[in-house]
Protein 1
Amino acid sequence: MHVLEPLIELARGLWTTLQFMLEKPVTVQYPEQKKLVKPRFRGRHVLHRYENGLEKCIGCSLCAAACPADAIFVESSENTDEKRFSPGERYASTYQINMLRCIYCGFCEDACPTEAIVLGDQYELSFTERRQAIYPKEMLIEPVPLGGQPTPQKTEPGKFTRSVPQMKDPQD
Ligand code: SF4
Ligand code: SF4
């Protein structure tokens, strides 16, 4: 071994350290600072509303049927024009997702005929007991949009007869 070899190795090591000292740090000061997720990230579910505040979910249970982890529980009830939650005949009177079972596959999102359930960008999930991992509709539904009304709403008879609004053909 050459006498200068340890010094050369030491200098190489210090040079690597120096290079990283000049780079922008990648550490995020969570939770004060939150990292933006990628556009296709699948986080905690959100139940969406229409612009007028009516709920998109019609309580059809197709999401529950599609779920490979049996994580979704839906119970539906009848809408009336006096007390309307969603367009059409029925709405989800109970909607629960067991977050301990969910594998974030997105099958529920694909199965939904009204695009009500969507896996959003929220990743802050923590529980101290198993019961807290069951998220009810009240936790999943998005807030009423600006200009909309909360549900239940009193609506004009015959105005919201279709459960599934006509959607544009994705092939168009
Ligand atoms: S993301 Fe997958 S596992 Fe989770 S609730 Fe939806 S269908 Fe079930
Ligand atoms: S979220 Fe969609 S698929 Fe699930 S019950 Fe509601 S409307 Fe049906």
Protein 2
Amino acid sequence: MGIFEINTSKSDLFEKLSKCEKKESFITYIQQEFIDANMLVHKYLYYTFESVIRYLKTIKNSKYKALLNVSTEVEVAKFSTYFEDIKIHSTYNEYDYVSVGCGDGDKDASILKTLNDKLKYTENINYIPLEFSYYLILSAITKVKTKCSNYVDIYPFNVDFLKYQEFIDKFNKTLNSNRHAIFSLFGHTIGNYLETDLLNPISNLMRPYDFLLIGYEVYPDMEVYRRNTGHYDNKEDRDFLKYPLKLLPNFSGHLEEDDNLKFEITKDISYTKIEGCFSVVPTLKDTGINLTLAFSTKYQVELLKQFFKDYFNELSLKYIKNYESSNEFPQYALMILQKQENIQDLKKKALIRIRDLIESQQSCKDELIKIKRDIEGGLIDNEDILKFIIEPRHTGSVIVDRVNKWLKSNHNK
Ligand SMILES: C[S@@+](CC[C@H](N)C(=O)[O-])C[C@H]1O[C@@H](n2cnc3c(N)ncnc32)[C@H](O)[C@@H]1O
């Protein structure tokens, strides 16, 4: 086993809480964030030990269990299909695995087993869970340690993944520089945040060619949701959603009656950036208080795909593939994205490589100098060609040949 310590990285909040793990500090933080965000932020639902017990009870109730089963089925099985497939086309056989919001670690243990069984690792797989809940990350570590101890090294980050600046340096050091990483955002966590708020930090943690797998719940429209839903509206779920509020003096008196928690369905842009998708927002309504709890946006496959194609160019997150479960409900899908290299960075790398080749490969020096000028002048700006130039196994003459063919065909267009 590799490093195995829970304190690898801590957000500000955790550092303060570990020194003084009292409910009062928690209340101060939760209240402040509540005031800033004007709602109870999703991560607090899993924060205390009692909340986690409620969460684990919730995922065992029949409606939720059906969703959990189908999500696990799609996420784990399609993951396996995809990486089996790219193994054939890729020079990479080894990946680090980063689980964003790992939860109890059940799915991650299956993913790690799949990676180990399907790809031929020469060294251990690095498992890097990023999780706000101390109790859930402990659960994930324990499960992975028990089920995959022979082939996994664990580097846990007990952090708020939105505050990536606080831990990015340490995080980068744990990633293996000879491997790409696979990031997972499973269990419909994407629906619990404004998509851009969540995907900006994740994209910043990713390096070029790393993968991001997003598991999400699918609903074609609001009416279909109304007809099929019900997994929130039961005792366990209400109990889970309301629990953090019991710790807040301002709200604890309003929590006994079940019927003051309403599940509103809205297309408000403060919950989703994707026009046409809708959010379910549990709201506690009572005389004098009106409190929004963590929300959940439901996606239509085509709209989410289009969103990635249109909006995420600037984050260089490229849409690759989407797998959907059957039309039965609950319906679930897995989207695969890949981080692309920024074209300016690619150009810089290509120029460094050409300069090295000019020094070392005299036989095609003049052609290489011309290629250098063409890159600088913006004539060569094609991603595939630039990647071809950078590839270490391509010699100067092979590069000259490939670039000339491309320039010719580009000229003829
Ligand atoms: C919906 S659960 C999904 C759990 C697991 N990935 C699965 O598929 O079953 C969301 C998870 O993300 C974690 N989480 C939510 N917000 C977070 C944040 N800001 N930083 C770190 N973890 C967070 C929660 O504690 C929880 O474990």
